[in-house]
Amino acid sequence: MADVAVFQQNGFHARFDWGYEGVKALAPVSDIVVIVDVLSFTTCVDVVLARGGVVYPYRYRHASASEYAASVQAVLAGKRGEPISLSPASLSAIDEGCRIVLPSPNGATCAFLAKDSGAIVVAGSLRNASAVARFIRNTGGIVTVIASGERWPDGSLRPAFEDMVAAGAILGELHGYRLSPEARLAVAAFDAAKSEMYPLLCESASGRELIAAGFAEDVAIASVWNASQVVPVLNREGAFVSGY
């Protein structure tokens, strides 16, 4: 088996990888880790923080989630279709300053895995791509952007169009950074998609899945490029708060 260093994209200022294993390999050698989960965790984080709220990421379907929410005096998000859930539309009218524990199998779990790495952990999406890139440039250091991806029924990673293009939207604005080949591929994906982002997102596997389930509004909210100036940063208490 190859040494993990082979997969850390050493020698590059800006790096890109996928999912849990990408976090485990690259977060320990990064100064900033950006978690991207467009449909829908990091889009939800942006929506909540834009209303002055706070989001606590948590492992998906973990039995201790209710107890954890009580301990941080937050509301535990439920399943899609419930008043507060992993649905950007459900969060767009929450009370200002609301504190939410938001479990998800992808973005929340990746953020949870990254929180003890020593890196600054940021939630990125299409909605706040430029704001996140500006934060990275102002902060400096080595950055890794993680596309969280989705899950096949067996639990394995399913690479997701929306996460790669959002990662590319962020990486493409890191002018002067030396991008790894993986990061350059993400930028190329964004450049190819940016003029048709909404229709392509609707036609993607993740978009079709949500639209078929009755959540077309979530896809529309997630598709808007640079709608937000919020930069969600994970604090020491394990909550995403506004970094700006």
Task: Explain what you see.
This is Probable 2-phosphosulfolactate phosphatase. GO terms for molecular function: 2-phosphosulfolactate phosphatase activity; magnesium ion binding; sulfopyruvate decarboxylase activity. 39% of the residues lie in helices and 18% in strands. It has a single domain (4-242), classed as putative 2-phosphosulfolactate phosphatase. The chain is built from eleven helices and eleven strands. The chain is globular and about 45 Å long. Helix 1 (19-26) packs parallel to helix 5. The chain is an alpha/beta fold and 244 residues long. The protein has helices at residues 19-26, 41-50, 65-71, 88-91, 107-114, 129-139, 161-171, 181-193, 197-203, 205-212, 216-222; strands spanning 14-18, 32-36, 54-59, 75-76, 99-104, 120-124, 143-147, 150-151, 157-158, 232-234, 240-242. The strands form four sheets. It has a four-stranded parallel beta sheet, with helices on both faces. Strands 3-5-4 form a three-stranded parallel beta sheet, with helices on both faces. Strands 8-9 form a two-stranded antiparallel ribbon. Helix 4 (88-91) links the parallel strand 4 (75-76) and strand 5.
